[in-house]
Amino acid sequence: MDRTEKKEAVAALHDVFSKTSAVVVAHYSGLTVAQMQRLRKQMRQAGAQVKVAKNSLAQIALKGTDVASIGPLLKGPTLIAHSSDPVAAAKAAVAFAKDHEKFVLLGGAMGKTSLDVDGVKALATLPSLDELRAKLLGLLVAPATKLAQLANAPAAKLARVVAAYAAKDAA
């Protein structure tokens, strides 16, 4: 890489690190090309992305970002998984690590909070942002549904009483 390519790579990485909310760092040595493609596909499906960058360039790009705490993890053949959803990258990385023993999680960061391997696994167990939104919406809609049922209940009872009297008179 010449100097301008390195500057462009650092700028692109800095942009990724400043816009992302969660970063996971892992070693990938020993994975085949097909396995790496599968990892990238699983990350895309989860809403995350994978970057393999030179560690020294990534160290420079980390300066001044919230996720700068991952700097010490960048040793050896590392890849960086990131997502705007705080849980997506961690979920996909932990799921891939269960199936591939050569994919070793090192840690990560969520905002300014540094995460070790156990922290990344704990983050992966949390519900995603979309799941939380759905639960919150369900909680907000439930009282309105119950109010509608209560409002309709007296009218339904009255209709049943009138129907019973009509059936009695008809008999």
Task: Tell me about this structure.
- The chain has 171 residues and is an alpha+beta fold.
- 60% of the residues lie in helices and 15% in strands.
- The protein has a five-stranded antiparallel sheet.
- The relative contact order is 0.14.
Helix tally equals: 6
Low-confidence regions: none
Q: Radius of gyration, Cα only, in angstroms?
A: 26 Å
Mean pLDDT across the residues is 85
User: What order do the helices and strands follow?
Assistant: HEHEHEHEEHH
The percent range for helix content is 55-70%
- Give the strand order of the largest sheet, numbering strands 1, 2, ... along the chain: 2-3-1-4-5
The major beta sheet can be summarized as: 5 strands, antiparallel
- Name the beta content range: 15-25%
Measure the end-to-end span. Answer: 96 Å
Structural class: alpha+beta
The coarse silhouette is elongated
Number of separate strands: 5
Brief write-up:
This protein is an alpha+beta fold and 171 residues long.
Main attributes?
about 170 residues; five-stranded antiparallel β-sheet; 6 helices; 5 strands; about 15% strand
Topology:
Layout: H1 3-19, E1 22-27, H2 33-46, E2 48-51, H3 55-62, E3 78-83, H4 88-99, E4 104-110, E5 113-115, H5 117-125, H6 129-170
